[in-house]
Amino acid sequence: MSMFRAKKLDIGCYYNAFIIRDHSKRKAVAAAEPERQALRYIIRNETLPARTRAIAQLQLTQMHAYTRPTQIRNRCTMGGKGRGVLRDFKMSRFMFRMNALSGNIPGVKKASW
Amino acid sequence: MSVPRARLLDLMKAQCQLFSTTFNPEGLRLGNKVLRKRLLGPSFVSYYPPKLVTHKDMLREFAPFELTIDNQKEDMRRDHIAGLKFRGKSAPKKIRTAPDANAKKKKK
């Protein structure tokens, strides 16, 4: 969705279309988070009238898909891969292996016993 | 020895005031657990590193002050193009006249 995309590139790492899309989603989620949480609060509050809660449910479902936190996926910051990404290093398993073996990641050493 | 319920409720109320939590003795579902959670947006946004200043940005910033820095790569590129032009291998000049109507039609 182009309306969420930044007009000027604002990512410093490797990027491709998937990464730019994911970053746009992240920013959309961050912007809409208070609104979503408020709606979720209204929905879960059983002391409020049923009509209010139903309206809140509808509003929440009608929000854009990009504002949904489940749309976010951690991607490799060095190769853009979406699977097998190590959360601690923000890298896919192969990128992690190459960088670790060449000594680019501090404190990581190949185990041997 | 039993403690009266009213007294226990008072204690609970005081506790809630002290630790700024919601006083809810009936255990109603008020949805407060949604509000208790911290906002995750900032940590989501900071996953990818922000764009830093590049060599090109520096050159552009300092251009008004006429502070130029040698850009070897760009110089080499220009030299290469000049060499091509000298040998007549550069890109053809753009045609300024309006294109012919017949020129667009392709042969079958």
From TrEMBL, chain A:
InterPro entries: Ribosomal_uS14, Ribosomal_uS14_CS
Example GO BP: translation
GO molecular function: structural constituent of ribosome
Source superkingdom: Eukaryota
The entry's keywords: Ribonucleoprotein, Ribosomal protein
SUPFAM superfamilies membership: Glucocorticoid receptor-like (DNA-binding domain)
GO CC term (a single one): mitochondrial small ribosomal subunit
UniProt record similarity statement: Belongs to the universal ribosomal protein uS14 family.
Protein name: Ribosomal protein S14
Protein species of origin: Immersiella caudata
UniProtKB/TrEMBL annotation, chain B:
Pfam families assigned: MRP-S33
Main location: mitochondrion
GO CC term (a single one): ribosome
Locations listed in the record: Mitochondrion
Domain of life: Eukaryota
Stretch forming the signal peptide: none
Name this polypeptide is given: Small ribosomal subunit protein mS33
Organism encoding this protein: Immersiella caudata
